[in-house]
Amino acid sequence: MKSFIIIPVYNEENTIVEIVSQIKELAFDKKIIVVDDASEDKSYGKVSQAFPDVILLRHKINLGKGAALKTGCQAALQLGNNMDNIVFIDADGQHSPLDIPKIIEKLQKEKLDIVFGIREINRGKMPLLKYFGNKFLSRAIKFFSKVSLDDTQTGFKAFIYQVYPKIVWQSQDYSVDTEIILNVGKHNLKYGQVPIETIYKDAYKGTVPFDGIKIFFNFLKQKFL
Amino acid sequence: MISFVQILGIIFGLIMLYTTFFHYKRKEFGKLQFFLWGFIWVSFLFIVIFLQTTSGIIQRFGFMRPLDFLVIVALVIITFLTFYNYTSLNAIRKKLEKKIREESLKDLSKR
Questions:
Q1: Measured between CA atoms, how close is A176 to chain B, in angstroms?
Q2: Complex ipTM, two decimals?
Q3: What is the C-alpha to C-alpha distance for residues A100 and A18, in angstroms, rounded to an integer?
Q4: Calpha distance A154→A177 (Å, rounded)
């Protein structure tokens, strides 16, 4: 099975090289697309220097995670001869690339359209605000979309190539994860979830409480407007 | 006798009139925009100064005071402008995203 691994990057100079190295070592057919969303640090330079064979794209202006993922998918569509699936993984080191084969295996074996990597949501591991925010969003999303996932804000997911036109999103920011779930419900796609290892390195990176509020309102907008 | 609220309204109207003129002089407003906004602010000043001129409308629509009428009209305009700004911003955001994406994908075909 051939996969595109898409990694959106914004100011991740400390983790991105490690993430890409780990992915490259995985033994399956893949193409890695790194989308640098106008990082202000050395993320772009480090990737281009360390991995000349990786497809590296750069936004001139910071647009947000959703827009970066969409750019990655557009690139995959342009290059995508004989590709079977697309995998999204965050660049901040929160996810372990070693879980990628697990998520692809589930997609393949159970013939699903999309599989979500589910972080362990417990108060011991997750920062408190993230824990409550995630719980609230998960319940609201489950109620409105009829898609039942233990973690709705995970950025780690894999889907079959053909399903992209159905899940494609308008969100430019972190709301992308919620919008994808809404689209999964809307098109009755077959979905699954697998538990993944999660490492919380920086409580101030990724989604912050204000993003959570924005995600919730964007979710209502996507659902009802 | 001009009331305190009317004085506030006159100061506000004059500032907005000056701001409109300022944008026109900096060529950020075209002639049409300048006259349209100028007309809005001059009308606003006229109504604030000569509140009694609106008495016909006020009685017809059942407002208690001329200033209530002015507040309602202002709210309608603000709601329209907020909606207009929202849609314009969305359109600009989408155009910007498209352009930046096209730019970033330009070299892809060479790979």
A1: 15
A2: 0.75
A3: 15
A4: 7
